[in-house]
Amino acid sequence: MEHLFQKLNEIINAYDSFIIMGHKDPDLDSLGSSLGLCEIIESFGKKAYVFLNDKHLEKYNNNIRQTFDKMEKDVVCVNERSYKKIDGKTLVIITDTHIEERLEYPKLINEYDVVVLDHHIKNKKYIKDTIFTYMDSNLSSMSELITYYAEYVNIDLDNVIASVLLAGIEIDTNGFNLKTTSRTYEAASTLMEMGADSILKQELLKESKEDYLKRATHIGGSFMVTDNIAMCVINKTLTTKDLAEIAEELLNFEDVEASFVIGKLEDECIGISARSLGEIDVSEPMKKMGGGGHSSNAATQIKDKTLKEVKQEIIDIISKEI
Ligand SMILES: [Mn+2]
């Protein structure tokens, strides 16, 4: 990783100003890694801005609003209008996504040089025109990577930012379970040493009772397809993030070794999110259905089929393969 950080240092030294942008509907990993990067870049004596509409925080979820309420450090945000005032040689750094349509404001990448840093499985629609791209899908979260980077440049991150990064790791690993290595715990330990506050972290991770109950209803409707594979079919329009969260949560239940969650997405598309504790390879069935991923984390999207057809197809594949 030292090689990566050296490269990033070189890049930072070559620009004057930086706009850091995460994904649409940001989560604490996207936000935490953006804020962490901001602080790292400022330690180079450069100007860094987070692309986020902090004048209209109501359009973001509660965790993001809370972070801004608690933050004492001055982080300058820019939006669709104000970024135009940034001067000097400017670089856009994308974190926690590598897909143009997932960006908070996609137009920005046509105007500046771009760096992409991400930990998701590479999608066909990745951003091609960059000066540098780093993607590692074995990494738990962008928060983990940015923590190592802060350590590498030898800075002590702001307490609130360290707490957001810790929450980011916790969210992306579903409580230090998925994709967690000894390095993930090391990053968590570093963040605690930097002053991450576990009470604040818990505050940030709180969700609304409505969200919890919605998820619980879907989980209540799940069933076992085999003696260790759970499935949930949701006849409602959700986001891929909702599907993933339900699939991850199903892994917490007794006997469940793998989970498949099927639901409607926008644009008359059906999405499947699949998760496994590790023994069952869920990427094979997803590949057969036009998707992809890792053995423990995979997904697909299907057009021109009904929920019922997709459900039957996946059950057939599971009973043959697994
Ligand atoms: Mn992430």
Strand-helix topology:
Blueprint: H1 2-13, E1 17-21, H2 28-42, E2 47-51, H3 62-70, E3 77-78, E4 90-95, E5 113-118, E6 132-135, H4 142-152, H5 159-172, H6 182-193, H7 198-205, H8 209-220, E7 223-224, E8 229-237, H9 240-250, E9 258-265, E10 269-276, H10 283-288, E11 292-294, E12 297-303, H11 307-321
Parallel strand pairs: 1-2, 1-4, 2-3, 4-5, 5-6, 8-9
Antiparallel strand pairs: 7-8, 9-10, 10-12, 11-12
Helix pairs in contact: 2-4, 2-5, 4-5, 4-6, 5-6, 5-7
The structure holds manganese (II) ion.
Residues 29, 96, 119, 141-142, 172 line the site of manganese (II) ion.
Mean pLDDT: 94
CATH topology of the largest domain: inorganic pyrophosphatase (n-terminal core)
- Quickly give the structural class: alpha/beta
- The level of helicity is 25-40%
Shape field: globular
Strand order of the largest sheet: 3-2-1-4-5-6
What's the end-to-end separation, in Å? 36 Å
Beta-strand segment tally: 12
- Within CATH, the superfamily of the largest domain carries the name inorganic pyrophosphatase (n-terminal core)
The bound ligands are: manganese (II) ion
